[in-house]
Amino acid sequence: MAADIPVHGVVPGTLVGLLYDYLDASGLDADHLLGEPRPDPGVHGLGRYPATRWQALLERAAAHLDDPLLGLKLGQTATAAHFGVMGYVLHNCADLGAAFERYRRFERLIYDMEPVQFSQDHDALVLEWGLGHGRPGPLVDETAITALVAFARALTGETLAPLSVHFVNPRPPDPAPYRDYFHCPVHFEEPHTRIRIPRLTLARPLQQADPALLRLLETQAEALLAQLPSGGQLEDEVRRLIAGLLPDAEPTLAAVAKRLALSERTLHRRLAARGVTFRMLRDDTRRQLAQRYLADPRLTLAEVALLLGYAEQSAFSRAFRHWTGESPGRYQARITLS
Predict the structure, then answer these.
(1) How far apart are CA 200 and CA 125, in angstroms?
(2) DSSP conformational letter for 112
(3) Residue 48: in which H helix or E strand, if any?
(4) pTM, two decimal places
(5) Mean pLDDT, consecutive 10-residue segments, the chain of 338 residues?
(6) What is the CATH number of the domain that holds 22?
(7) Are residues 48 and 145 in the same domain?
(8) Selection from 86, 138, 134 nearest residue 110 by Cα
(9) Which residue range forms the structural domain that includes residue 162?
(10) Domain termination residue (choose one: 203, 220, 253)
(11) Where is the HTH araC/xylS-type domain (predicted)?
């Protein structure tokens, strides 16, 4: 059972610092209450904290405050600084959709636990987290999801409302505070943690977009990401590298293996042990990016094809029809009209 899987993963010291800032702002001595000094993100490389330690700190604070809603309140205070370099990357994206795409690429810098899965339905971008890394509990989950929504609102300067929010944890005695904050239906005891972002909001421009600064910050984020241990997230690393190779080069097994400092045979074997192939990951990465690009009315079909590394639009059309059962033009028209 998923509930029996030990919690594993890490979070950065910048995120742990969010709790210290919250307690200090409440007039409490955070170091004394939590029994350890404020984390220094510059210590021990990336300053990563085991998920179990983060969970314990949140539970200790919630018990002292007698506040089961601590995660919901804490997440609302998150700033770019608490997201580390990824927070500043997101701040400088052109629009909200681009920010979510960077979140997918660099998620491990802020939440190196259960990897996010992106998909789209007719009216929403869907972010979903499973239970393969255990159940860290309501405080961890609610802090993460609330911080993500709070940060999206800060980036756009608007009170954006998800279409729905889903938590795996038990239903609280009073769910009203959750509905009041998210401004949407909030479900509990779900099989996965999930948030559905209205597709029409993805084109919202961000207030502090700076393309030149974004390039510098992405380079820094890539360097930090490269320092992280591969752990059990090989598929995510392969997807990230595939996305990074597009549209300038064809993402091949050889090219990705070289960047992972592995032989082609070793990479093939490790992926096979996880029940996937390189082609499956390449196709799925392209499919997800295709759906993301087709949701942007500013992009033509020819431009989408080039962004995905196809020399001919016809090759992209054949691939998209194979993935989804419909042409990219029909898909684009359908989601634009929905």
Answers:
(1) 9
(2) B
(3) strand 48-50
(4) 0.68
(5) 58 92 95 86 57 88 95 96 92 95 91 86 89 86 97 94 96 96 97 94 91 92 78 72 84 90 87 74 84 85 90 91 83 73
(6) 3.90.1520.10
(7) yes
(8) 86
(9) 2-203
(10) 203
(11) 236-334
